[in-house]
Known about the structure:
Two copies of one chain form a homodimer. Chain A contains 13 helices and seven strands.
Amino acid sequence: MPTPETTTDVPQDFEALKAVILERKAQLPKRLKQVAAYSLDNPDEIAFGTAASIATSADVQPSTLVRFAQHFGFEGFSSLQQIFRARLRERTPGYEERLKALRSNDHSKLESGSIFNGFVAAAHRSLDNIATSVDPQAFERAVDILAKADTIYLIAKRRSYPISSYMAYAFGKLKVKYQHVGTAAGIDDDMLAMATKQDAAFAVSFSPYASESASQARLLASRKVPVVSLTDSAFSPLAESSKVWFELVEADHAGFRSLSASMAFAMALTVAIAEKRRRTEDAATR
Amino acid sequence: MPTPETTTDVPQDFEALKAVILERKAQLPKRLKQVAAYSLDNPDEIAFGTAASIATSADVQPSTLVRFAQHFGFEGFSSLQQIFRARLRERTPGYEERLKALRSNDHSKLESGSIFNGFVAAAHRSLDNIATSVDPQAFERAVDILAKADTIYLIAKRRSYPISSYMAYAFGKLKVKYQHVGTAAGIDDDMLAMATKQDAAFAVSFSPYASESASQARLLASRKVPVVSLTDSAFSPLAESSKVWFELVEADHAGFRSLSASMAFAMALTVAIAEKRRRTEDAATR
DNA sequence: AATGGGATAGAACGAACGTTCCATTTTCCC
DNA sequence: GGGAAAATGGAACGTTCGTTCTATCCCATT
């Protein structure tokens, strides 16, 4: 038994509990450590879920939850759960203004805080715009084109490069064949020479446009490889080479443009392509 | 029975429910009016309590609560309770409105549209979280450490790689000396071997953690190179090697986690570092 | 390789839950 | 003031909950 002792050293609020869990995390047995990690990462789930549902979610047995609670001096899982509920209760009053006040007070007192806030705000603005600026039918067409492709060529340089590198990672996980153009210098052209009209390309470029991206897109287009592109202006050199293109203007803070909307777009596109492929394959093999 | 009707006009969120209750309050029978008043005055109690405890508290019978819920089109008390719980879960301001705006755009009509909307919503949620989960003082300390460094080593693999590759790009533009660890295999260790305690490192890793990132961070820490890290759990292997670390849980759509918050964080950090350096240099040469 | 102690999985249990049902009371219209 | 309809209280139901208990597993130590 883990020392019943006095009830005084049982954590009475969430912060205290968190501290104790972190302090003892290293010495915890495997399953209990698993619960510890889950509980701090998904506190809301603990607050609302039932022991059974949480156990499933955290991939342990319900009894493990009870043992976990008892390890920290609680009578059972239920009393531990109260701590997580209290945490949500106490944060309620006037959240709209309160959060706003908290943000501006907390962060802007320190110099770097305003920079931080600025970027979060810029990202929000970008995302607010994205829904209206992206035409859903064009999106559908883009998914169509790329889902049909044998290999997808990803073209992005400089500031756009993180976007294509995320897509490369995700495509790899999703088993979608791709070629990441623009990693090593020199071999790009050889890589592109292999593209046929059975393939397709996705190009990203924001002003000031990398001339390489534009010329690579043009090269592919001239060889009948369908190109889908993401850019920030109708005047982008990418637009003329593309079968479908999207105009997406990112908001900026102090001149540094956000990437959040582009990133969300890229994720959606990536998953939509994989999704469509799976559906098509299902239909074919049935 | 109080009109089974279609399920479409059953309130789906707290605001809608509140409106409906207030609208029909006057015509409600005595006991139901009592419940109506109680539920709007003590929404937290409804969220967490049991039917029995709430009934006692509101001085009615448990069955009255069920009848009350059914009067407003819910199947039973439990489904009404979900609305009150959701309210606490989604404590972020403006979130509901944003989602509503998203829902009403024409994306939802097309198949890929829901994927698109899902990722935008996930990005919003991530950003809403970031302001509260990042401690401004820790951020300030992180900026301090990295601004003082001679060379900044960027460590990130796989899903986190786009983040460090953005920072690499931005550092280049801002003339901040950096080394991007993890690009080419093999030379990483040689690169890290050159790091001294005059330098610093920024590591990013989300679960499932890339073991390389963790071991590289550990290596640097053991050689007194200060490490700042961005991760998603207090249990991350990065945490123990880091002087300052940030916990940032990205929201996900269909299991694909957003990168928007991490990206915004990375941008803010990057710019704040450059900003701080410029200020320090100004002060020195003056 | 054997042993001992702690940790775990899973079945079993009693308590508490939300809901339903029906007798009783209240309300409102004729 | 009588009667029907609506509203209410409270008991009973089946379900699901958190917890307990025990056989088994794992791992460290010898």
